Amino acid sequence: MKKLVMLTALTFVGVWSSAQIRTPQPSPAATVMQTIGVTDITVKYSRPAMKGREIFGKLVPYGQFWRTGANQATAIEFSTDIMLEGQNVPAGKYFLYSIPGADSWSVIINKSAATAPEEYKQADDVARVTVKAASAPVTESFMIGFSNITDSTGTLDIMWDKVKVSPKLSVSTTKMVTSSIDKVAEASANNMNAGASYLLTKGIDLQKALSMVNQAVAYKETFRNLWTKAQILGKLGNFAEAAPLAKKALEIGQSSNDTAFPFFKDAIEKGAAEFVSKIPVPAVMPALKKKK
User: Fold this and answer.
1) Residue 15 confidence (pLDDT)
2) Handedness of CA 229, 235, 238, 244 (dihedral sign)
């Protein structure tokens, strides 16, 4: 009987310990994400409420480190490099802190988690900017958000009580997009040349191979795609166009820093000479005899 009672008690304790009762938090968690151009910015923080308390200068003292929220340190993540009030912040995961003042705040991006002044390490600051504190309608629950969004700029809004602080954000959207376009175009050109080379090797669909390599050459002439095109033209019997292309491939290869060129050099030289030798020689018309 005692064993049964003990087993029942242990079973009850096990069920009780494994059960989780979720209760409301005084400062509930929140996540806000904003895209500026092609940059994603995510902030994870907690939202304390005023509850009739005087906030800045009292609950949150002036001139002291503040976790800029409650509970755990406020986390902020940037998917690309950004500028915070003109200061560069590399892409990555950080923590958002501040030092409130009556007229202006220090807004800080830091690499280490801290929830109290004694834990904060200024040496781990990635950026620290001074931002004017503005009057705003009352915000009962602390809030972080974004506003004034364009494809390359925005503001990070920190709001509580009657105060709003909005450091400016900017990203090099145009530069990033054009760089992506260049990478995709280059990859596409390389893929087109690779496809044309495959068809050439198999000796099939040479007109399609020519069309593909023309797209690669149109993006950027390299010794590789010029040599591919020269070989395709040679297979099609167009030696008059193949010969100068092979010669140009040699010239570009010799002036490039491509370490693969020496492995192609002999083949290109032989190919160029062969194309020249196969160019048809125009027939010489016999001279007409003058009538007496």
Assistant:
1) 46
2) positive
pTM as predicted: 0.70
Please report which residue ranges of the chain form alpha helices under DSSP H.
2-18, 173-202, 206-219, 223-235, 239-255, 261-277
- Over residues 159-166, mean pLDDT: 97
Sign, CA dihedral 269-274-277-282, equals negative
Q: Residue 32 phi/psi, 5° resolution? A: -130, 135
Coil, helix or strand at residue 67: coil
- The alpha carbons of the chain give a radius of gyration, in whole angstroms, of 35
**pLDDT tens-digit profile of 57-66?**
999 999 999 9
User: CB–CB of 138/162 below 8 Å?
Assistant: yes
d(CA 97, CA 112): 10
Q: Above pLDDT 90, what percent of the chain? A: 79
For residues 225 and 245, what is the distance between their CA atoms, to the nearest angstrom? 10
187 vs 6: which has the higher pLDDT: 187
Which one-letter DSSP state was computed for residue 129? Answer: E
Structure tokens at 215: 């797209």
Q: Are 43 and 76 contacting, i.e. CB atoms less than 8 angstroms apart?
A: yes
